[in-house]
């Protein structure tokens, strides 16, 4: 009589622990996602506190640009002695410019964080990938609000007057924030795509210069040649500048507000998914 011996299979060697980052981002609930964003916002804010020099652009850029354009170009555009009229023209336009310049800093900051290995640590944690980028945008929007507050303060000292209502002023600020946050996704995508922060800055300037100076921020389009007027009419910065100017000066806004919102929605819808995907895949 033969005996059959049964052997138990040897326990398999424990494999490497599965990193928490491998779990699907979709499993993270809204409350947890918001908590992650809040923690990352606090981390970024503390980083600014430890490096106050990072606020120099926000503190001094509105002052320098306002004084420069009012006293250097104001007389030429509005006539000598009419700088006060030019203040009401250029300050609302500069609100659009503040958002674009601060958005550029987001791209260089993201690129620098990858160089330091900060983003690799975030990607190894069980948090939504989008929360890292959204926290960046929240902090930069806060910096943008500081810049706009300083811009308006300088504008009031130079004779800026609100000819509509305080609500319209806040609507103009909110519109600038919405469009600025949309632009930040463009520069985040650039920061994740370009190899160095210097390359991000160089590419950003190639985008910024034509959009800023080929717009209605500094001068009425009627003073420009016909071909440039056509470019200005389709420039999203012109729509934002015209909307903010109309809201502050109490003039008809026309289609500028809706065009600004449409531009913001379109830019965000295209660049936000691309930025989050690039963030996941970047090595």
From TrEMBL:
It is found in: Cell membrane; Membrane. Residues 1-23 are annotated as: Disordered. It holds the Pfam family ABC2_membrane. It is a multi-pass membrane protein. Keywords: Antibiotic resistance, Cell membrane, Membrane, Transmembrane, Transmembrane helix, Transport. Its main location: membrane. The chain crosses the membrane at residues 58-77, 89-111, 132-157, 169-192, 199-219, 257-276. Residues 53-282 form the ABC transmembrane type-2 domain. The keyword Transferase does not apply. Belongs to the ABC-2 integral membrane protein family. This is Transport permease protein. It comes from Streptomyces yangpuensis.
């Amino acid at each position: 009589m033969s005996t059959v011996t049964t052997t138990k299979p040897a326990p398999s060697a424990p494999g490497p622990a599965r990193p928490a980052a491998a779990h699907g981002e979709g499993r993270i609930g809204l409350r947890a996602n918001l908590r992650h964003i809040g923690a990352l916002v606090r981390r970024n804010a503390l980083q600014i506190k430890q490096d106050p020099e990072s606020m120099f652009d926000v503190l001094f850029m509105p002052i320098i640009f306002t004084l420069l354009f009012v006293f250097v170009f104001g007389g030429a555009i509005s006539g000598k002695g009419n700088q006060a009229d030019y203040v009401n023209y250029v300050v609302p336009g500069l609100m659009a410019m503040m958002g674009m310049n601060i958005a550029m800093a987001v791209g260089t900051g993201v690129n620098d964080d990858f160089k330091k290995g900060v983003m690799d640590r975030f990607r190894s944690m069980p948090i939504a990938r989008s929360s890292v980028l959204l926290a960046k945008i929240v902090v930069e929007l806060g910096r943008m609000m500081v810049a706009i507050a300083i811009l308006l303060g300088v504008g009031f000292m130079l004779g800026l007057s609100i000819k509509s209502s305080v609500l319209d002023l806040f609507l103009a600020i909110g519109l600038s924030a919405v469009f600025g946050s949309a632009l930040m996704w463009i520069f985040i995508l650039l920061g994740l795509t370009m190899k160095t922060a210097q390359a991000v800055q160089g590419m950003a300037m190639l985008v910024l210069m034509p959009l800023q100076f080929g717009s209605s921020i500094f001068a009425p389009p009627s003073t420009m040649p016909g071909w440039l007027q056509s470019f200005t009419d389709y420039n999203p910065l012109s729509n934002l500048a015209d909307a903010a100017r109309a809201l502050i000066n109490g003039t008809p806004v026309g289609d500028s507000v809706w065009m600004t919102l449409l531009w913001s929605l379109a830019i965000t819808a295209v660049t936000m998914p691309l930025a989050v995907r690039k963030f996941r895949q970047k090595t």
